[in-house]
Amino acid sequence: MISLDAGVVTDFDDDYDELAVTTDGPPLPEGRYLDRELSWLAFNNRVLELAEDPSLPVLERANFLAIFASNLDEFFMVRVAGLKRRILTDLAVPTNVGRRPTDVLEDISVKAHELQARHSAAWRNLVSPALADEGIRIVAYSELDEADRENLREIFSQQIFPVLMPLAVDPAHPFPYISGLSLNLSVRVRNSKTGKEEFARLKVPQVLNRFIRVDQRESVNELRFIPLEDLIANHLGDLFPGMEVVEHHVFRVTRNEDVEVEEDETENLLQALEKELLRRRFGPPIRLEITDDMDAVTLELLVRELDITEQEVYRLPWPLDLGGLFDLTRIPRPDLKYPKHVPTTSVALLPPEPNAKPDIFKAISRGDILLHHPYESFATSVQAFLEQAAADPHVLAIKQTLYRTSGDSPIVEALIDAAEAGKQVLALVEIKARFDEQANISWARKLEKAGVHVVYGLVGLKTHCKLALVIRQEKGRLKSYSHIGTGNYNPKTSRIYEDLGLLTADDQVGKDLTRLFNELSGYAIEKKFKRLLVAPLHLRKGLLKRIADEAENARKGLPSGIRIKLNSIVDEAIIDGLYRASQAGVPIDIWVRGICSLKPGQEGLSETIRVRSILGRYLEHSRIFSFHNNGDPQVFIGSADMMHRNLDRRVEALVRLVDPDHLREIDGLFELAMSDAVTSWALDEAGDWIRSVVDAEGVHLIDLQDELMQQISRRKRPGTTR
């Protein structure tokens, strides 16, 4: 379900630009937007509800607890940090609901404290006991007998003690730098000879496993683990020989890790970004998590040295940092996880004969192919497309955008292979992709060394669109093969992110992508695209025009309808357009994973708007924009959410689907997602998310992702009946 890289799934750019509110038509009421920060916290609350759900496999529930923690970490590092920066720099720009950042921070603090307490309780009272029932226990050192302790002492001495680095705090040793998100032990010791007390900080090494097996001889069905920090805390005498340990407590600091690069003030973007990444490590603290047994003396020291306010202190039960629960998901207990699902190869990519060798280009030439990951394999579709292009002697050029990719990316290797084979290869690498900056810099340099033409997009804009263009020579002419997707070219996340992609040999799409790549890599200014909507110049305008057309059709008594699926919707102009369409009577369905600033069901404003959210084993990541258009549907898929950053400060691209089968497939997706028979969350008129899990008879509702797995796995090879 929810992102990888430890589960982060967020939309965290600083989006408090001047509000893009439409002025067409009569004025709309004040207070018509939900606060985006609180809406994001409501999203993470939905993640927490999955962890609390006893019907889910227990290791998946532990995974959702870890995802919640990881999400909240990034929320503080970016969004809370951004609000604090505005306050410190006296930027009085209001939030999307017109409130001061200081007021929003207070609300965030109240809600975040509540959620973190509930998160801890979910672990302590629900998930931990459920794991114990299945033979997996997280134990405290105090629960162990002498034999267990002797075994762990050997592990500590041989594998942990040599890595530890206690740091004293005294006139000769200033208070040490506390790295962001690291677990730490605060230790107060007393000199047995002088009676003087000293303070030391001990970092829990992040290179070691968070949970240590108590007994390596136990079977996989009966496992006990002890948190690493608890094992260290009970061997502090080895680290401070001759001293009496008076107090020890666990704490954790979250820092501002936002990155800002002023591109117009530097000639070398890579060097500027690398300097900014170094600065990120030393951002100011914005949250201090402590165990609830921490004494007042230690807390006062930490608050003073870290310059933390009381509002930023979070007292929590042991253990801190439940993001460490990701480690438990590696336990080989498939009976405690979602049933394994193996993606199928898209039937459109299968050769007509069962034993024939697949040919991606021939398959695409037969007609547009709509891919749906992870139900359909990324490896046998998008990855195979680029690998075949790299090896094909008839391919002359490959052009591709890279926003996030995996550490051992076969996509990047395919581009390198193509360049080394003498093909023209262009890679547009977005080195400002948040928290992937360093990895993308490394990829960019590796690609350049292989002879790939690497560019970094347009100054002041992130390139977020997901595009690949292959130019192939066929029968004396050049033919374009294109891929436009909703997700990154990342084989790892493609297995847990739900995304759509279009493979097409359509000549017009090829021309559109050629113009767009020329604009991104050169100085061309191309404003006309036939099957694409491109941000920042035309995407918002294009969508607003289609929304207005639906409203006009409704006023004329013609059929109308709007269906949108996305990760977040915040943009005021888009929301106001949808409000006005609703006032005209247009039925509107919004399927959103995360932030939603739109208020549905408001009398006289949004009575025809329904909002649903679906979370599950896969992270819903695709973006779809569907307009009834009086019976001639206009349906787009692509990379853009409805946020200021996507519409104003990013290069985004949507492609229009034209195949009638694809239009029916998209329509079926919405029918399923908005059905009362499917488990989901509904946003009500009060701004609350209400989860539906069972029907009136108490029968569990359909899981949309399970249903799609079954539907897609039943698809047959063209021309076959079984």
UniProtKB/TrEMBL annotation:
UniProt binding sites for Mg(2+): 404, 434
Write down the EC number: 2.7.4.1
Pfam families in alphabetical order: PP_kinase, PP_kinase_C, PP_kinase_C_1, PP_kinase_N
Q: What is this protein called?
A: Polyphosphate kinase
Reaction(s) catalyzed by this protein?
[phosphate](n) + ATP = [phosphate](n+1) + ADP
Q: What PTMs does it carry?
A: An intermediate of this reaction is the autophosphorylated ppk in which a phosphate is covalently linked to a histidine residue through a N-P bond.
**Entry function:** Catalyzes the reversible transfer of the terminal phosphate of ATP to form a long-chain polyphosphate (polyP).
UniProt keyword list: ATP-binding, Kinase, Magnesium, Metal-binding, Nucleotide-binding, Phosphoprotein, Transferase
Q: What class of enzyme is it?
A: transferase
Give a GO cellular-component term. Answer: polyphosphate kinase complex
List, in alphabetical order, the GO biological process terms annotated in this UniProt record: polyphosphate biosynthetic process
* GO MF term set: ATP binding; metal ion binding; polyphosphate kinase activity
- Segments forming domain PLD phosphodiesterase: 616-646
Which family is this protein grouped under?
Answer: Belongs to the polyphosphate kinase 1 (PPK1) family.
